Amino acid sequence: MKSYVVQTDVRLMIVERDRPKPGPGEILVRLGAMSLNYHDMAGYCQVVCRV
């Protein structure tokens, strides 16, 4: 499966990973789509936006 990985210098990389296997009491959810916008990245990277 493909995964987005956030690098330490705030770059996104697409990497190929093995599909995870759920453990006891866990489920595996298939995503059809996702979004990532500037505000998501700013919050992750603790960037303060200027107005």
What is the secondary structure topology, with strand pairs?
Blueprint: E1 2-6, E2 12-16, H1 38-45
Antiparallel strand pairs: 1-2
Write up what this structure looks like.
With 51 residues, this protein is an alpha+beta fold. It has one domain (1-19, 34-51). It is 16% helix and 20% strand. The protein has 1 helix and 2 strands, in the order E-E-H. It has one helix at residues 38-45; strands at residues 2-6, 12-16. A two-stranded antiparallel ribbon has the order 1-2. The protein starts with a strand and ends in a 6-residue tail after the last helix. 0% of the residues are buried. The model has no long low-confidence stretch (mean pLDDT 79). InterPro entries: GroES-like_sf.
